[in-house]
Amino acid sequence: MFGFSEVFKNVKHRKPSQIFCPRCASPNIHLSTGLDLWLTPKSYVCDDCGYNGLIVMELEETSDSVDKKE
To answer: How far apart are CA 28 and CA 39, in angstroms?
Structure first.
């Protein structure tokens, strides 16, 4: 039990990052239905190219990009 509590203490909480379509790199991508978070795996649909799939690109800020903003 001690191991679990240490893992949860060290987990970094991050804000949601922006997602992009893996086919056309458009940010106009969303979950296909409201049930994707509850019953089934997340499935995304792109409004621009019509992509429908489980994979999306995610943009994360690195510590270098945070330092440059300051």
So the answer is: 23
Chain Cα centroid distance, residue 36 = 14
Domain extents for the chain? 16-69
pLDDT, one tens digit per residue, over 10-46 is 666 667 788 999 999 999 999 888 765 667 788 899 9
User: Is 20 in contact with 59 (CB distance < 8 Å)?
Assistant: yes
Distance CA 27, CA 11 (A): 27
Cα–Cα distances in angstroms (integers) from residue 45 to residues 20, 26, 31, 56, in the given order: 10, 11, 6, 10
Integer angstrom CA distances of residue 18 from 27, 30, 45, 51, 58? 8, 11, 15, 17, 6
Q: What is d(CA 7, CA 43) in angstroms, rounded to the nearest whole number?
A: 29
